[in-house]
Amino acid sequence: MATSAAPVHDEADPYPLSQVYPLGSRINDRGHLEIGGCDTVELAAQFGTPAFIVAEEDLRARARVYRDGLAALHHDSDVLFASKAFPCTAVYRLLAQEGLACDVASGGELALALAGGFEPARIYLHGNAKSEAELQQALAAGVGHIVLDSADDITRLERVAAAAGRTQEVLLRVTPDVAGDTHAAISTGQADSKFGFGIAQARAAIDLVADAPHLRLVGLHCHIGSQLLALEPFTRAIEALASLGSFEVYNLGGGLGVPYLEHQEAPSISSYLTALTDAARTALPSARRLLVEPGRSLVANSTVTLYTVQTVKRNVSTWVAVDGGMSDNLRPMLYGARYEAALANRMRSAGKGELCQLAGKHCESGDVIVRDVRLPDPRPGDLVVTPATGAYGHAMANNYNGVPRPPVVFCAGGDARLVVRRETYADLVSRDV
Ligand code: PLP
After folding, report:
1. Does residue 11 sit within a domain?
2. Ligand 1 pocket, 267 CB below 6 A?
């Protein structure tokens, strides 16, 4: 797999699918979208909508490209699944099976990673506001590394480690003052950030850790942002780390962008890994061990969301409203993120038809999943698909308007299995006391 996403299709196929669909997706003889060999119309009938449909082989393929690609470029290396992107036990389990390590950003993600079968020693705990309880939980679990994010974090972890009679290996998160071209809300490498230490502050932080008897600083971490479609900011960030001295371990973060639209170009995973390792070889000669922690580029294109059209209304624009929306995909509302959409039950007409506003069911005018998308004569009961929803979809799902969160269905080789069931109304009141 050379590029970041490429569904398999016959060269002569008159109805090729956009690159953003999961690997192996196709349009079947009935004109229906197939994911992992499963007809999405049948999936909708079996599991209901909205639903997250995951192509298991796509997840595995991308994990292998990352794992084998980095290992070939740098002998002592590891790929960490940035699990905030898709914190679902079955996804943790699959990526643990594929030999990845794991990045968690809270006690909850740590609990999920352990439940998903990650070895504690291969878990890295992040967080700009870790609580004492989360640090205790990490030490009790035997988490391999904790990424320190502030002076308070350093003193708190030293206290917790001393009380536990443990010495904890740590990395220090640095913000290298490199901002990639992405939405401000997901840019994290700028100097004025809530994450990590600026270069100027990092030196004092390194000394603070050196003076902490129960902490052992093994290296530095940096993550400059998400959905980055150019490689140059990554290499500038690596160069900036060099000014902080020599370390054995460098965690170069995640952030590689993916195509959400048919003609959007994203660097391939292999070119990204080559750029990182080349830059590290030159700028960080002491780096014995290199880590990367992709989220989005591992999981985004593995998954599609299925919705059912409920209403079609013509109020100046044509408003096509479905049974989900900002409760299963917040990204369009948070970042103006763009998606494709098509009718999964009439895929041969994808990209054709009337210009529509694909709206959700929630009580906000901003609850629009895709603006200005062509849908062929949409009608209530049609099945809508939005591809590339594997990253930060399930992760940020919520119960706005009392809408139960969708199920997650894994598909492979024509078999579908439910890995997360749909929430019920009983779940909605299950925390009441
Ligand atoms: N690492 C850290 C520290 C992050 O904060 C994030 C995302 O916020 C990631 C990795 C994953 O980023 P992405 O999903 O863009 O690869």
Report:
1. no
2. no
Confidence of residue 11 (pLDDT cuts 50, 70, 90): low
231-253 pLDDT, tens per residue?
999 999 999 999 999 999 999 99
Q: Which residues are annotated as catalytic?
A: 363
Half-sphere exposure of residue 276, counting CA atoms within 13 Å on the CB side? Answer: 33
Q: Whose CA is nearest to atom 10 of ligand 1?
A: 254
In a domain, 16, yes or no: no
CA-closest residue to ligand 1 atom 5: 223
Nearest residue to 288 via CA among 80, 77, 124? 77
- CA distances to 148, 151, 167, 188, 238 from 205, in Å: 9, 7, 18, 19, 19
Tell me the pTM. 0.96
Looking at ligand 1, which atom is closest to the CA of residue 186?
A: 8
Question: Mean pLDDT across the stretch 303-312?
Answer: 98
Atom of ligand 1 nearest to the CA of 298: 16
Q: Rounded to whole angstroms, how far apart are CA atoms 125 and 302?
A: 25
Q: Which two tokens stand for residue 229?
A: 């479609």
Instruction: Give yes or no for residue 148 CB within 6 A of ligand 1.
Output: no
The string of DSSP letters for 169-216 reads EEEEEEE-S---SS-GGGB--SSS-SSSEEHHHHHHHHHHHHT-TTEE
Does residue 4 carry a pLDDT above 60? no
- Ligand 1 near 126 CB (within 6 A): yes
pLDDT at 1: 45
Of 295, 311, 334, the residue at which a domain comes to its end is 295
Domain that holds residue 387: 26-56+300-428
